[in-house]
Amino acid sequence: MSRRPFQPDDEDTGTFLVDVFKIALGVFIGGLAAAFTYEAILAYRAEEAIRKASAEIKAQNARTNAEIAKQNELNQQAREEQRQRAESLRAAQAMEARLESERRQRKEDAWAKFHQPSPNCKLDSGTAACANEYMAARKRFESQYVDR
Q1: pLDDT band at 81 (very low <50, low <70, confident <90, very high)
Q2: Long-range contacts from 123-132, C-beta under 8 angstroms, 24+ separation
Q3: How far is 47 from 11, CA to CA, in rounded Å?
Q4: DSSP output for 132-145
């Protein structure tokens, strides 16, 4: 057997170039497809990152709004409690003033019943004797008086 060297036919030369062109065209189209796929993947990743960031921002806003609402509610409760304390303090002060007024009135009534000035002091209360009588009666009254 003898070997013969490869010699392309003239017909094969035309088809060889067509085949090379087909391969080059296939590689080019494959490269374009790969580039478009890569761009699509990058776009998808960017959209996902934007969605995640948007969801995180919305969640943070919701948490912040909830915290603000809670703080406002606590502030409102504190203001209400402070108002109630002030109201109860005013009521207690009014009650204390009323009781003090009643106590003073009872004491004045008791003093009026206790001290009856002499007829001379009723006519002229500016004398030293009347003043001494008044002071002595007042001392006795103060030592004996018990509020009931």
Answers
A1: very high
A2: none
A3: 54
A4: HHHHHHHHHHHHH-
